[in-house]
Design brief:
Helix content is 48%, strand content 12%. The protein is of the alpha+beta class. The strands form two sheets. Strands 1, 2, 3, 4, 5, 6 and 7 form a seven-stranded mixed β-sheet that branches. The radius of gyration is 22 Å and the shape is globular. Keywords: Flavoprotein, Oxidoreductase.
């Protein structure tokens, strides 16, 4: 796979439109051999290098450090565009953006500056070993340092990351502590046990954390071993859930566009339908019209919810619990709709491509496998429940790892 373009080294995008154009260029390169790479399931070192070379990893970084200085609505659109060609790489990029932002969510001003300068200047790639369904990683206080020990069954980004976000609970307390460490630090062991039907290139296998030592000064948000909470600390969940929404929509869009090309170039009309071309079949036109309308609608909702969240990200010290809760409800609503539409589209495209489109060489199944795998991250019924509780009882969800 060709991973560079000569003009990328000459100039960097400066506007949202230019960043989306850059994302489209990356997406086009990823699409060339997406089927083969999905089948092989190799660690995506070249694909992450492409994200770095294109500058997409610096999208949210400060311009003073060579970053794009862009906002979350643009980041979501970039994730959607990349996921159109390769859902795994779209997920990796979206998780990178979330973990890059982790310093702003919980860190001190000094920590934020240090992390963003380091990561942006060097185009470092983030992964995260934070899975709340597993037992908490334990943290031992050793004076000037804290020591992490435990295991996480999922660690998206693992072996392709430069930095890994850790999270655990300080022994004898209820204090949760985030820290960012080099991915090659002694004590981190990434396992080659990601063997799922979809999102095969996300390097989401388990990790064992053994005596990973971190200075107290690197404990995110802690000053003199104490943490001062604020509402903005809890924005990690709606932020990452919108990342999910956008790579689901990107995958669905990729499925529909791939199917469209197949229908136009390869599909045969039904021999009893009375039409010479598949593109003239009434039922084919109906299904494409239906799927397109549904995707347009949920894409518009996703963009609107992203814009609603922008004010929160721009004024992190002013957001109230109610504002945060209402935003989470809106995210839950679009997450539910994106899940349903993405599953419908990625499974339904076979109705308009025909039996021969199921050939392994076409790879059309990868879109459904990718969506089906990740949409099981947390039950969509509980997202609809959040919306229902808000509508009927005017209650917003309490912040949790999933709400």
């Amino acid at each position: 796979m060709t991973t560079t373009k000569a003009d990328w080294a000459q100039s960097s995008p400066t506007t949202p439109a230019e960043w989306l154009t850059r994302a489209a260029e990356v997406s086009a390169l990823l699409a060339v051999d997406a089927v083969e790479r999905d089948r092989e399931g190799k660690t995506p070192h070249a694909e992450v290098r492409l994200l770095k070379d294109s500058g997409l990893v610096t999208l949210l970084g400060p311009t003073r450090h060579g970053g794009g200085g862009q906002d979350w609505p643009t980041a979501y659109r970039v994730v959607r565009e990349v996921a159109k060609a390769d859902g795994s790489i779209g997920q990796l990029l979206g998780y990178h953006y979330l973990w890059f932002w982790a310093a702003r969510l919980v860190g001190t001003s000094e920590q934020i500056e240090a992390v963003e300068e380091l990561a942006t200047t060097n185009r470092l790639f983030f992964g995260g070993a934070v899975n709340p369904r597993d037992a908490d990683v334990t943290i031992r206080d050793e004076g000037d340092t804290i020591v992490y020990n435990g295991h996480k069954s999922f660690s998206t980004g693992s072996k392709v990351s430069d930095l890994t976000v850790l999270e655990g609970v300080l022994e004898g307390t209820d204090k949760h502590i985030f820290a960012i460490v080099p991915s090659d630090i002694d004590g981190l062991t990434f396992h080659d046990d990601w063997d799922n039907i979809g999102q095969r290139l996300t390097e989401s296998g388990g990790v064992t954390i053994s005596d990973v030592r971190v200075p107290w000064a690197s404990a995110a948000g802690y000053v003199d071993k104490e943490f001062t909470p604020r509402v903005y600390n809890t924005l990690n969940v709606p932020t990452i859930q919108l990342v999910f929404v956008n790579f689901y929509l990107g995958i669905a869009r990729g499925a529909l566009e791939t199917a469209r090309t197949y229908t136009a170039q390869k599909s045969r009309s039904w021999l009893h339908g009375g039409h010479e071309r598949a593109v003239d079949e009434p039922y084919v036109l109906d299904i494409y019209g239906d799927f397109t309308a549904k995707l347009w609608a949920v894409e518009a909702l996703a963009d609107q919810v992203a814009q609603e969240g922008l004010a929160i990200h721009q004024s992190p010290d002013l957001v109230t619990e109610r504002e945060r809760g209402v935003h989470e409800v809106r995210v839950a609503a679009v997450k539910a709709r994106a899940t349903e539409v993405a599953l419908e589209v990625t499974a339904g495209v076979f109705e308009v491509t025909g039996a021969r489109s199921t050939a392994a060489r076409e790879g059309l199944d990868r879109f459904w496998r990718n969506v089906r795998t990740h949409t099981l991250h947390d039950p969509v019924a509980y997202k609809r429940r959040e919306v229902g509780v808000f509508v009927l009882r005017d209650e917003v969800p309490e912040p949790t790892w999933y709400s």
